[in-house]
Design brief:
The complex is a heterodimer. Chain A is α/β, with parallel strands linked by helices. Chain A is built from 10 helices and 10 strands. By secondary structure, chain B is mainly alpha-helical. Classes of the chains: A alpha/beta, B mainly alpha. Chains A and B meet through α2, α3, α5 and α6 of A and α7, α8 and α12 of B.
């Protein structure tokens, strides 16, 4: 589904991403791990078009998307979240969700004039979808609260829900549990599983915490200093000496 | 006096409702307002003076301002924050220089005197009462149109640009295009406001479109309430009173001018401290009720 070959990115003299190739299969949960500063987020930015690559090729659903504009990549069905959560703070929780779908009627300049009826019906439908998701995630009571007033863990969940509202084929999550409590982490884990099973969404997840991905991901890539140093099932990765040296060793 | 002040309030309200689309909803500080106001004023005045009907002329003034807004949007597409503000300021100054130096068209610093009063289907709006009536109708029209827009998904999209452009892009929103439309829309109402100003005052010259007036418009939006059209109207009422009332109090002009500046600044400082989002803040447009309806 998603394929990246020989991706490179330099910042001045620093090789942030050095010849990294990955493949994400449809219907799986895959992980990208590595120590801080390994180049994980940079790699995400490259795949999703927020940074341009120096060399290499990215294919999504068989289409070459290398250096395409981010909103066009998103429209193809690959949607991401951010490590530093990016919600719309001065908009309500419900508004945060309603604004996300890519087939929203009424976002063009002439739509409010010519599609009044269609716009209303569409909004109603989108609101009911959003309400269902909010109830599912237990955020329904806060739906009219400004997003900035939510606790950090719930902002992270809101960001994920907002991404889900776009009906993506693949979700790229950048540290979905960074800085949140164990409760939220467990909650997030079960929600991701549910999304995969019920909606068939493919996941590619960056995590710093290995434990989060150990029983969630089917396959892991490990990068360190911009280079791919290992890949395999979580079990294989746990026993890989290169990985242990680069990463787990520091935790042990 | 009552009619004069109210008419000014309406003209500034229409202009600033346009500015609010850019500053309040989309979140970009634009210093180009005087330029759009001026483009609308000159366009409409010159058209009516060469025989074009009033209504067509003010719309043409708005459209020409919108076209310049669109071009400005294209040029500044990559700019955010301070850079955008500076670019729009430069644009406004360039426009003013054109007003001054294109003497064949604008008569330069001499200005355009004798701009005809509005005439619609043979009815000439010559008294202030008639003016007020006409301008109130136009204000209601502008308010209806902009309210329809800001409450629509389009309006919500504008807010996402203000809130977090990157996040909006990640959801697949074409930020560049939407921002451009917002600037053009804002410019349109700025142009219409300028046209209405020209036909009311009946005389314009380049000194009416200086940075000072841009700042005046920005204070209206900021004081009234960013992201709230009614707040903008309230801001216009307040600022017109502050600016014009000292003239009627029998104070010496020099004293009145400095008093005015002091009151301006005090209003801004107090508001920034007490109500940073203006007198009327933004409303929550997606209500409990509408979500309940949708939930069923």
């Amino acid at each position: 589904m998603l394929e990246a070959n020989g991706i490179e990115k330099n910042f001045g003299g620093l090789k942030a991403v050095d010849n990294v190739s990955i493949k994400v299969k449809e219907g799986t949960i895959m992980g990208l791990i590595g120590p801080n500063g390994a180049g994980k987020t940079t790699f995400f930015n490259l795949i999703t078009g927020f940074l341009s690559t120096d060399s290499g090729e990215i294919k999504f659903k068989g289409k070459d998307i290398t250096n395409l504009e981010p909103h066009l990549i998103s429209r193809l069905g690959m949607v991401r979240t951010f490590q530093q959560t990016r919600i719309f703070p001065e908009m309500t929780v419900l508004e945060n969700l309603i604004v996300a779908p890519q087939d929203n009627v009424g976002e063009g300049f002439f739509d409010p004039i010519f599609y009044r009826k269609a716009l209303k019906d569409d909004q109603k439908e989108k609101i009911s979808v959003a309400v269902a998701i909010l109830k599912d995630m237990g955020l329904y009571d806060q739906k009219d609260e400004y997003a900035k007033n939510l606790p950090y863990g719930e902002q992270k969940r809101l960001e994920l829900m907002r991404a889900v509202m776009t009906s993506p084929d693949i979700l790229l999550l950048d540290e979905p549990t960074a800085g949140v409590s164990q409760d939220y982490t467990d909650n997030m884990k079960s929600y991701i599983k549910k999304l995969k099973n019920e909606r068939g969404i493919t996941f590619f997840i960056i995590e710093h915490k290995m434990s989060f991905l150990m029983d969630l991901a089917e396959y892991l890539y490990v990068i360190d200093h911009g280079k791919l140093i290992a890949s395999g099932t979580p079990k294989e990765i746990q026993n890989n000496t290169k990985v242990i040296n680069a990463y787990l060793g520091t935790e042990g | 006096m009552f009619y004069h002040l109210t008419i000014l309030m309406i003209i500034y309200s229409i202009t600033c409702i346009g500015l609010n689309i850019v500053v309040g909803y989309t979140g970009f500080f634009s210093f180009a307002r005087a330029a759009f106001f001026g483009i609308g004023a000159y366009t409409s005045a010159l058209l009516v003076m060469s025989g074009v009907p009033f209504l067509i002329a003010i719309i043409a003034g708005g459209i020409l301002a919108a076209i310049f807004g669109w071009i400005l949007g294209l040029i500044t597409v990559e700019m955010t924050g301070d850079y955008f503000a500076l670019a729009t300021f430069a644009f406004a100054e360039m426009t003013r220089q054109v007003f001054i130096n294109w003497t064949g068209l604008t008569r330069g610093p001499l200005g355009l005197p004798g701009i005809p009063r509005p005439e619609i289907f043979g009815f000439r709006f010559s008294t202030n009462q008639a003016y007020l009536f006409l301008y109130i109708i136009l204000l209601i029209l502008v308010l209806l149109i902009t309210e329809m827009y800001v409450k629509s998904p389009f309006g919500r999209l504008l807010k996402t640009i203000r809130e977090d452009e990157t996040a909006a892009q990640s959801l697949g929103k074409d930020i560049a295009k939407t921002k451009n439309i917002a600037i053009a829309m804002g410019a349109f109402f700025g142009g219409v406001g300028g046209a209405l100003y020209a036909h009311y005052i009946t005389y314009i010259d380049p000194s009416a479109f200086v940075l000072h007036i841009t700042i005046f418009f920005l204070i209206i939006v900021i004081a009234g309430g960013m992201g709230n059209n009614y707040g903008t109207i309230l801001g216009a009422v307040m600022l017109v009173l502050v600016r014009e009332l000292p003239r009627y109090l029998g104070l010496s002009p020099a004293f009145a001018a400095s008093l005015q500046q002091m009151v301006y600044s005090s209003i801004l400082v107090i508001l920034m401290l007490v109500r940073p989002r203006g007198l009327l803040g933004e409303r929550k447009l997606l209500s409990e009720q509408s979500s309940e309806e949708g939930g069923k």
